[in-house]
Design brief:
The protein is of the alpha+beta class. Helix content is 23%, strand content 25%.
Length: 244
């Protein structure tokens, strides 16, 4: 299944004991229709407040309901903030996360003086001066294969990292201006916890003049979270697409 969702009112993708999640809401809806207890697996765990244009989820079912009918039935009972865009029968070996070859994320920064209330849930409002050209230069330093330890949040569920577990390959890292928005697009073979939001936080430091664009290379080499910028808010982040 391919899903789009507004993550504002959810605790993220992953099921949590006492908070609404995308995964849990989808599992409940599937259970109501098929009478099966399933836990759909997503291509990745988007955080609380993060949105998706095209999250991919997979699950096994013995239900005879055709995929196109399941799509319609789910959209009838899911909250408006979650929509199933596509539903197809996959090969038994397919797994939404393990089969993924790459992902694209987008971060939207609203640069206008006043952020329209209808946009506030979907962008980070940052009206202060920024050297956007310097930020574009800084973004290019993320291209290629790097150890992104400096840009990874500590994830207690993963425990101690192996030496090269934080190495990722980035094939696109670009900043563009779209109307009043400054947009960062990044495509890679995988992403660490908070990695995109920490990259954007570092680009903001460059834009403010607190950090030269060239320092991105040093920060990558240091493999130290404290060397990079702060984690920016989740509401500007989107999972755009997943490649298989």
């Amino acid at each position: 299944m391919v899903l789009a969702y507004d993550g504002t009112d959810f605790c993220g993708w992953q099921v949590q004991p006492d908070a609404p999640s995308i995964q849990g809401t989808l599992a409940s809806a599937i259970g109501r229709i098929t009478s099966e207890k399933v836990l759909p697996q997503g291509s990745g765990r988007t955080d609380a407040g993060v949105h998706a244009f095209a999250q991919v989820a997979s699950f096994a079912t013995e239900s005879p309901i055709p995929a196109e009918n399941l799509l319609k039935a789910l959209n009838d009972i899911l909250p408006p903030a979650i929509r199933i865009l596509e539903a197809t029968e996959a090969h038994p070996d397919f797994h939404a996360r393990k089969s993924a070859l790459g992902k694209t994320y987008r971060y939207r920064i609203y640069r206008g003086t006043i952020c329209p209330p209808f946009l506030a849930r979907y962008v980070w409002h940052y009206p202060y001066p920024l050297d956007e050209d310097a930020m574009r230069r800084a973004a290019s330093y993320f291209l290629g294969d790097h150890d992104f330890t400096s840009f990874a949040a500590v994830d207690p569920e993963r425990g101690r990292e192996t030496e090269d577990s934080n190495v990722r390959s980035i094939s696109k890292s670009e900043c563009t201006k779209v109307g009043h928005e400054f947009v960062y697009d990044v495509r890679g073979d995988g992403f660490l916890h908070h990695m995109v939001r920490n990259i954007v936080g570092t680009l903001i430091l460059v834009g403010k003049g607190a950090l030269p664009a060239e320092d991105v290379s040093r920060i990558l080499r240091e493999r130290n979270r404290s060397a990079a910028g702060a984690t920016v808010p989740p509401n500007g982040l989107y999972l755009v697409s997943v490649e298989y």
